[in-house]
Amino acid sequence: MGMMEKARVKAQADVKRIVLPEGDEPRTIRAAAIVKKEGYAEPILLGDEERIAAEAERLGADLQGIAVVNPETSEKFAEYAAALYELRKAKGVTEEKARELAADPMYYGIMMVKLGDADGLVSGAVHTTGDMLRPALQIIKTKPGTKVVSSSFLMDCPNKSLGEDGLLVYADCVVMPCPTAEELAHIAVSAAETARTLCGIEEPKVAMLSFSTKGSAKHELVSKVQEATRIAHELAPDLLLDGELQFDAALVPEVGASKAKGSPVAGHANVLIFPDLQAGNIGYKITQRIGGAEAFAVLQGLAKPCNDLSRGCSVEDIVNTVVLTAVQAQ
Ligand code: ACO
Question: Counting atoms of ligand 1 from 1, which one is nearest the CA of 137?
Answer without folding.
Answer: 21
